[in-house]
Amino acid sequence: MTKLLIVSDLPILKHGFKAMFENYRDEFQVIGAVSNVYEAIKIIAKLHPDILIIDMYISVKDEFRFLKAIRSQFPYVKTLIMSESETKEQLLQAIRADVSGYVSGSVDMDELLRSLRKIMQGDYVLSPRLTNLIVKEFNDSRSYIRNLTIREREILSYVVEGYSNKEIAEKCFISQATVKSHIRNILTKLKVKNRKGAVAMAVDQEILEKILAN
């Protein structure tokens, strides 16, 4: 039995989800419904859901912060976002929050059931449109990273790990001035403004590779 916790700020959807799963109660059980991710955090320890189904109009970035907190505190809980918003930035925010799947809010019941079953099997679920979007993002970021030299990739890996310029210089046996020069080249080639942007791209690339491998 897969236990579901519904997260939606629309009462009609919360009740609607419960009714939808009545015909599948041998496989799925709706154990509760809350209005937002913050409320979900407060009752997960009590209800022990397997999957959070999140009806999300992704306009509040705090939602993603709370999703990260859920993954940190309750790693066994999987999350499926249902949203009509399917932009690249929103998708990447969801990926960084380590959600288990992201599908259209207009998905039909059969597809929703397939998505839930795949998630319980450990697969990552994306709608077809988002799959195309993520492949494009993967190819774009990979082409940028491919432009880096071996030394620049080494230095970027240290930047991702949080090392300072001084520490990187010591590890690579080069001067801090040389490290700064390499980092400037890295930022230019990756088309980002600062170290934070370079780290985000490197981390996103790693995550995208894992998702596409599923």
Broad structural category: alpha/beta
Tell me the distance between the termini: 24 Å
Radius of gyration: 20 Å
Q: Quick one: overall form?
A: elongated
Instruction: Write the CATH fold name of the largest domain.
Output: Rossmann fold
User: Which regions have little confidence, pLDDT < 50, spanning 5+ residues?
Assistant: none
Main beta-sheet annotation: 6 strands, parallel
CATH superfamily of the largest domain: Response regulator
Strand order, largest beta sheet? 2-1-3-4-5-6
The CATH C-level name of the largest domain is Alpha Beta
The overall average pLDDT, rounded, is 86
Helix content: 55-70%
What would you say the CATH architecture of the largest domain is?
3-Layer(aba) Sandwich
Query: Which sequence of SSEs, written as H and E, runs from N to C?
Result: EHEHEHEHEHEHHHHH
Tell me the domain tally.
Answer: 2
How many strands appear in the DSSP assignment? 6
Number of helices: 10
Strand content: 5-15%
